């Protein structure tokens, strides 16, 4: 009976939206790989185990088995594969050009991640400005307020958002309540309704005017290390930097140096260049706020993300179109 159904390749685990996932079984047969690493995965695919799959669903952590979805991996997948539905906003684990060359349409999960990530982003800004981490570390060591410098109020400070997308805009909504003045830089200026009062500035102006810089842009070849030594030198002394996007948009070595010199007063990080490895210069610095990639680490958000990704699968199977194709493939 199942032979008439379309096939979905499951890369990763279903953790929240079980009922929705089970409902997909009415329209699709689920193929679960046995591979434990990339070499085994490629071999399994070449053996024909994934033949005829139309769609693949993948999670962020499935990279531990498949590795990056790049030319080598995509070439080993069956030609029947037309849709790759990624569960996550950032899809830097996928090479969009390789997928396009092999006629694989890719979707991600925008919007559903915005509020939870912006909540964490705000927590990091306030914590870094107010030296909360240092105070908390000292308290646990029995050193009540020892060597904890006075912090700074967010009110009246200039927040420079690099990448005013969904998360950046959700952050602005939150920082408006703290009377922060928001300036932003994107490759293209947004429409006034999306700007919602944020001031559009050039990249260098954002670096030089901001009291707090928030990195909210995707990681790709154009944004890797977009913040490094030269950019730090253009910032105000004592600037605060927060990153909930991807670690590699900022050069971590350069950040550690900028913290040591005092150029950067403090930072708040949810993401790191080599997760789960964290730079020792960050780990040993009690003034910085460090969180282990928890931007969407909430029941409700994780469920909403799965549902969004499954909507993409359902749409691909029933209409031949994705609900949220990645921008690189718009019009494919
Ligand atoms: O990091 C989380 C995501 O990309 O959704």
UniProtKB/TrEMBL annotation:
Q: Which domain of life is it from?
A: Eukaryota
Keyword Ribonucleoprotein applies: no
Could you name the Gene Ontology cellular component terms for this entry? cytosol
The D-isomer specific 2-hydroxyacid dehydrogenase catalytic domain extends over: 21-325
The molecular function terms of the Gene Ontology recorded here are:
glyoxylate reductase (NADPH) activity; hydroxypyruvate reductase [NAD(P)H] activity; NAD binding
Family matches, as Gene3D superfamilies: NAD(P)-binding Rossmann-like Domain (3.40.50.720)
Keywords tagged on the record: NAD, Oxidoreductase
User: Which segments constitute the D-isomer specific 2-hydroxyacid dehydrogenase NAD-binding domain?
Assistant: 123-295
The record's annotation in Pfam families points to: 2-Hacid_dh (PF00389), 2-Hacid_dh_C (PF02826)
Q: Which family does it belong to?
A: Belongs to the D-isomer specific 2-hydroxyacid dehydrogenase family.
Q: What is this protein called?
A: Glyoxylate reductase
Native source species: Tuber magnatum
